[in-house]
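user: At home tonight, take the chain set out below, taking as long as you need, and be ready to discuss the fold:
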Amino acid sequence: MTTQDRNDAAATTTADRQERFDVIRGRVGLALGPVLFGLVLLLTGGLPWPQRALAAVLALVVVWWVSEAIPLAVTAILAIVLCVFLGVADEDTVFGAFGNDTIFTFLGGFVIARSMTVHGLDRRIALRVLSVGSIVRSPARTVIAFGAMGMLISAFISNTATVAMLFPIGIGIVSAVSTISTEEGGKDLRYSRWSTALMLMIAYSASIGGLLTPIGAPHQLIGRDLVEEQTGETINFVEWVLLFAPIVLVMFVVLCLVLLRLNKPEVSRLDGAGSYIAAQRAELGRFSRGEANTCVAFALAVLLWTTPGIASLVLGENHGTVTWLHEHVTEGVAAIFAATALFLLPLRRQAGSTGRREATLSWAEAVKIDWGVILLFGAGTVIGSLSSETGLADTLGSGLAEQFGVSSLTAITILAAVAGLIISETTSNTASAGIVVPIVVPIAVAVGVNPLIPGLVATAAAGYGFMLPVSTPPNAIVYGSGMVPMTRMLRSGLVFDVLGVAVLVTGVLLMSQLVGI
């Protein structure tokens, strides 16, 4: 049996085990959720009915989100329906969450990202970066370059979309250099430490890069909104970038060191990678009108997202212009303006064409965005706001603060990071944020420390989860390549989880003072 056959067999066996585990987890969660729902109702008789009912709904939601017994979006919809059915709040209050500004930020951002994919703008950017100098001749530089692209691109489109774009390029480079290597009697690099480092870098960098901006990942918008809902404090686009950009850069350096140290490349030169990139760029052809129009829409979104924050820094928070911008140029408004431009900016008509005008993005393409995340966000907002309104947040916060014995800002922040990390290893990032943030913020309030900091740390940590294929979609995508043995993912992910949490907690505690949060 060849090395390739052994690796393929091992990957198939592990995938089968993972599938069986997921099935068992789903079945157990499906049964356990209603049981916990009933137990919470029975055992919380001392609480007012709205708190009892909401606590029961929350227990059901957490179990089904963690176990993924049914689709996350379906659980989210069921949760808000149960809130109305059980009398936690009326339908206007519950369903009114879907008028939240962040919903429209999701919509606009997803539509712009869809246009990038449709017209190949993201792929052109990646190939252009890789063609610079002698980047792809060096194994280490290639890994770092993919990481830098993953980090920067995922700041504006989802980490899954970023990996879906970079993954085939990475596979192509690995295949090209492996073909040449084996023809010359060398090692098959498709199953090497270098290929493992490259695949893990594509996945991990996209996950940490989303932290650069609030719109970089859905769970961040969800978490930020929950934090603002429960604390009454806001953090705008510019403040978020100022807070997290240094942290992400340090994380990226740590990530490069961890992956290249634990998966040291066997070769010092990659023959054939340069010609592969050149061939891929040639296939793209000239810069299209669709790509140009998408750039215009994206630039408009960034301009409108950053203008209120920059104006605040220059003119001061109390200036009349700044107040008007914050009230009228919200992130949702900016996102929809930019997304709408894609339906207004036309593509070039073909010579001799007499058909109707074709816009940069069609509605048929636009509706392919992830609507499930939007439903998940709406449910998270409902549960978070009702937790505050019913007093359940205060009850939970006081009880958990006593249980854990935490009383300082540092201790609560560490707790938030660890809780977010652990839950994100077993369930989706969006679900993790919806579970952890409503718990850690009340704890902080109960002990009298600034709840914004642990809330933001919990939100960021919910995007972690580097150890298992099931932890994040990017992990699952690269694991499916067969180039990432489970042992290497576990080892690399564990080390980076620990170091990443240390960087996150330390960075937020320090940067929050500098930014003035």
